[in-house]
Every structure is written in structure tokens, then in C-alpha cells.
User: What shape does this take?
Amino acid sequence: MKAIVIHEFGNPSVLNFEDVPQPTLEMGEIAIKVRAATVNQTLDVALRAGKYARRPPLPHVLGSDAAGEVTAVASNVKTLKVGDRVVCHPIIGRQPNGAPKLLGVDTWGTYAQFVKVPANTVQIVPDTLDFITAAVVGRHGPLAFTQLRDRAQVKPGEWVLVMGAAGGLGSALVQAAKYLGARVIAAAGSEARVAAAIELGADEGINYRSQDLTAEARRITGGSGVSVVLDNIGDPVTFPKALASLGFQGRLVTAGGHGGGNVPLDVKYLYLNVITIFGNPIDTPDNFRLALQVAAEGKLKVLIDKVLPLQEARRAHEIVEERSGIGKVVLTP
Assistant: This one.
């Protein structure tokens, strides 16, 4: 089969379109013909550059998510059959210490015509969803609902501030928050990105490059501040302003640091306002199913910037690194 293989870490030129053996199934596994795989800042781009927290052994195939058709099942797999339309999840198991085992990090990933994964980590794609939409929803929808419903326990009517609201996870958070009955402030770094998030249902928008994020959030909420902040960027400039947007007993949820990750923290503001910070990137199968259901109902849409063939993975990585587009870049093997 064809796959994108790296033999060294570096810039996008290290991505090579090569022939590799098709995966051999072990017990409990299925093989998927990949129809769509998204390109992600952390698990794909940072990993390729050698900047991720872990470096897999080389050669390596990137790709942390995919949607496609089941082409083979191990003999003990009874829940799926050849031809099923499925979407796979980045978390494919647990390490001995309990940490997540990640597709495309701890195993070869989805930048390939075929990938193997544990059968119990995939979900059936609803008939109304195409593979590209399913791949994007499967990548970001589960974590969006987990952060809002399980971590922050958002309540109807509460104000929620979503940072990076036009990104893959941010755009899912805007819609998931609305689905759960919250009022949403979409914060992004350009007018076009704010407008895109408003189009997805956000009630208000803030351009945090040209406006004072904290002052605007306070103004919109009548001075009380927001109840929940979703900051999956970790930018040292915007993070403290997002934290200061929280009102009394506010909750901040974070599971991303591609803005740097090292941020100032006003500890006095934290304890005087009884703020809770949740840092947890692990979502649940229940929220995986919920995200696909909501998307099938037409209440969770995806923003797509570019769809490129697998052999153009270098260009796909360049686009994601440039941060020039709005929405996801998707590869179609």
C-alpha cells in the first residue's frame, strides 16, 4: 500500500510517499481503508518536527484519526464486519502506567491507504455523514462534549468563552456548547475567524488581537464574567486574559498547548475567585457517539479549509503550519 513515511524528524520535506506492507491483524483488531484523515497541529505537525512530547521509533507513519470502510476483521471480532463505515479515535488503548496509547504516535497512523486499530475504539459512521465530515467530527467532537459536559459541567444559560473558536476543536466547542444550552462568546485572532464562529452559532465574538479580551467578555456578560473558559491554545499572551474573564467559581478547561503552553498564572485571582482548572485530554466513548449523533442531526458542522490527496501531505503540513486557512486540512488516500 501507499503511505506517508518519515525516516527523520524535520520540516515537511521529510514526508515521503512510499510503498509499505499492508498491516497484519492481531486479535481484536480491524483493518480500515482510509477515506479521510485530518492533519493536526500537535499529533501530526509537531510530531513530524520532533517537537512532540514523545518521539516514535523511525520509520514512522503519522496520522491520528481516520474515517473509512472496514476491509478485514480479526477472527474474534464479532461487533463489526467488512464493509462497515467507521471512524477511529486517536486513543487506541492504555500504556502500562495508564496514560493514553495514541494512534499515529505509539503505532503507525492513518496517513496510509489502510490502517489497523482495535475494533473497540471505532464508531459506526451514520449514513447521513460523509467520510470527511466523520473524520473531523471524530477527531474533535468527543473532546468538545467531554470538556463541556463532563469537566466543566456547563449548565443551560451559562456564558462560555471559547478560545480559538474557528479551529477544529474550537468550532466543535462552539456548537457543542450551544447544543447543551449555553451562551457562547467566540474568541479568535482575526475578524474572518470570529465571523466563521458566529456563523456556527456563537452569540458574541471577540477578536483578541485587536480587542481587549477580558474587557469585552466582562462587557458582554454585564460585568459578571463568564462561567466557563475553554482554552486549548496555551498562548502566554491570551491565556491570562481568558482566565481573568472568568467570574466567581468559574471553570477553565484546557487540553492543548500549541500556542506555547507556558503561561503566566495569577494565583491570587485563582483562589480569591474560587476558580477551578481542568487539564485532561481524555474523552469518552459515550461522547464519541454523542458527537456523531449531533453531527448526523445537522447540529455539529465542520469547517474545511483544504482537501488534498495523500501524496500532497507536504503541502498539507505547510498549510497547517502557516495557519493561513480557516478549518481543517484533510488528506484523502
In short: The CA atoms of residues 268 and 274 lie 10 Å apart.
